[in-house]
Amino acid sequence: MTTTDRAMPPLTADERATLQSWLDFQRATLAVKCAGLTDTQLRTASAPPSPLTLLGLTAHMAEVERNWFRRVLLGQTAPAIFGGDSDPEARDGGFDLPADVSTDTVREAWENEVDHARAACAERTLEDTGTFGGGEVSLRWIYVHMIGEYARHNGHADLLRERIDGATGV
């Protein structure tokens, strides 16, 4: 996906560099979990009874990136990437992909949203806010939320990948 090279976040950086590098580390972790797998493997729900797949996780994270950085931080009206209900709260968040959505399409959408998020953040301070739940939320909070979102789903990706081909770690 975006990269399989994961740089260890700096141990003594300032707050912004720490938050950015931990988010990039988590993004790279998802890419590592998907690296080297076939389309069929990426679409395999390998931990029954869950229907979760690595490709579905990647699509979900593209939607999550879009939600927090485009809709919340920038205040844009951005439709769902992979269709679904026009109400972001009513969608499944990209987990359930139509069969005609290719692996390349999902990967490119995720990479595009990550690039867009990085550009949006570069122009803002940690104190800048967006609208969420009828109130304001800071970029700092969004970074922390996104690190947690990726970390949680990377745990799912660990299990899915191990069930697919036995790969563990990283």
Account of the protein in words:
With 170 residues, the chain is mainly alpha-helical. The protein has a single domain, classed as dinb family like domain (Four Helix Bundle (Hemerythrin (Met), subunit A), Up-down Bundle). It has helices at residues 15-34, 39-42, 54-73, 103-122, 139-165; strands spanning 129-132, 135-138. It has a two-stranded antiparallel ribbon with strand order 1-2.
Summarize the structure.
This protein is mainly alpha-helical and 170 residues long. The protein has a single domain, classed as Up-down Bundle (Four Helix Bundle (Hemerythrin (Met), subunit A)).
Poorly predicted runs of 5 or more residues: none
User: If you consult CATH, what is the topology?
Assistant: Four Helix Bundle (Hemerythrin (Met), subunit A)
Helical content stands at 40-55%
Strand order of the largest sheet: 1-2
User: What would CATH call the class?
Assistant: Mainly Alpha
Please give the domain count: 1
CA-based gyration radius = 16 Å
Shape: globular
Order of helices and strands: HHHHEEH
What is the strand tally? 2
CATH architecture: Up-down Bundle
Structural class by secondary-structure content: mainly alpha
